[in-house]
TrEMBL record:
GO terms for cellular component: mitochondrion. The keyword ATP-binding does not apply. This is enoyl-[acyl-carrier-protein] reductase. The keyword Lipid biosynthesis applies. GO terms for molecular function: enoyl-[acyl-carrier-protein] reductase (NADPH) activity. Keywords: Fatty acid biosynthesis, Fatty acid metabolism, Lipid biosynthesis, Lipid metabolism, Mitochondrion, NADP, Oxidoreductase, Transit peptide. InterPro entries: ADH-like_C (IPR013149), ADH-like_N (IPR013154), ER (IPR020843), GroES-like_sf (IPR011032), Mito_Enoyl-ACP_Reductase (IPR051034), NAD(P)-bd_dom_sf (IPR036291).
Length: 357
């Protein structure tokens, strides 16, 4: 029996995303998959800012993807870089035989094209994440992985009481940073936009933030970080937005501290004091999960394995997000449901994850 699937596809890049995305239906014959392949069914796939940048072009360009067991009528890109799938059938080869029906898996590499109801994957192209809930597995590949690598790829000798400081303090990445840092006794200072309610601030502290500081307080020229750190070293600063706080992140770093920029939604220019950099022997560098994963795929696998352990042992917990639902064979096209999630994201409703019912 064949499997009928649907995907969010595009053939050109543009900032006008509603104009370029379409729904494409396809057919998979499970008996036609190769011995080293597995057939997987989508359970939940996020809509990340990096995914939208990919659609605009020039960022992690999407490859052409064959959707079904027969070639597409024309070359197609499929959106989405992460998500969780369930194994439906495994090929007869030795590599595929390590998977069984019902296993939860996530793509190993970016640009997999996760916004589709079914996919054929190489046995070496996915990571087994059994032991997680679907909600955890859906987002583990990007935000928790980014937080883990930010904390562990650049400092290997954390000491109890060390600090990290981060802007984009309400983001998903920042909430995972706070949780994971706390496991090593590292304290987190999260900088947030003005106007956050006490309830929102308290929630960040529940996720492990030691201190939460508003933009206006942090950007004041008289601001002194030692008010919060009491002289403890601030070893890393995480820039997720490229906004006006960057100069003060650098200013807050201690001797031989590092600024790691992993996002630039607030702008493309990063400005900070050369005097501070020179006097403190500071390092400023970019962090890009996609590039890291392509350069060191097994490093990504190790990161995911460690995160699975942390989730399974209850040492970290899910960060809430908004769910949008697509029903295969229903009245709505998959691209329409995707655009609903995109609208929610643009209207400030937080991270969106497409669930397949």
């Amino acid at each position: 029996m064949t499997v009928q699937g649907s995907a969010v596809t595009f053939t050109e890049y543009s900032a006008d995303i509603p104009k370029i995305v379409h729904s494409t239906d396809f057919t998979i014959d499970p008996n036609a998959i190769k011995e080293d392949q597995i057939l997987i069914k989508a359970l939940a796939t996020p809509i990340n800012p990096a995914d939208l940048m990919q659609l605009r072009g020039g960022y992690n360009d999407a490859p052409d993807i064959q959707l079904g067991t027969e070639p597409n009528d024309k070359p197609l890109h499929v959106g989405g870089n992460d998500g969780v799938f369930k194994v439906v059938k495994a090929g007869s080869g030795s590599k595929a035989s390590k998977y069984k029906e019902g296993d939860l898996v996530i793509p190993k590499l970016p640009a997999f094209g996760t916004w589709r109801t079914y996919a054929i994957a190489g046995a070496d192209d996915v990571i087994n994440v059994n032991g997680l809930t679907v909600e955890q597995a859906a987002t583990i590949s990007v935000n928790p992985a980014t937080a883990y690598q930010l904390l562990h790829n650049y400092v290997s000798d954390w000491k109890e009481g060390d600090y990290v400081i981060q802007n984009s303090g309400t983001s998903q990445v920042s909430r995972y940073v706070s949780q994971i840092a706390k496991l090593d006794g590292v304290k987190t200072i999260s900088v947030v936009r003005d106007g956050k309610s006490q309830e929102e601030i308290d929630e960040l502290k529940k996720f492990g933030a030691e201190h939460v500081i508003s933009h206006s307080e942090f950007n004041d020229e008289k601001f002194d970080i030692t008010k919060y750190t009491k002289g403890a070293p601030v070893r890393l600063a995480f820039n997720g937005s490229g906004d006006s706080t960057v100069a003060h992140l650098v200013k807050s770093l201690s001797q031989k501290g590092q600024l790691l920029s992993y996002g630039f939604l607030g702008g493309a220019e990063i400005k900070y004091s050369a005097v501070d950099q020179f006097a403190k022997d500071l390092v400023t560098r970019r962090y890009w999960l996609t590039a890291n994963t392509y350069a060191d795929p097994e490093g990504k696998v190790d990161t995911i394995k460690r995160l699975v352990e942390l989730y399974s042992s209850g040492k970290i917990k899910d960060v809430p997000y908004n769910k949008v639902h697509y029903k295969q064979g229903g009245n709505e096209e998959i691209s329409k449901v995707f655009l609903e999630g995109l609208a929610n994201f643009k209207n400030g409703k937080g991270k969106q994850v497409l669930f397949y019912d």
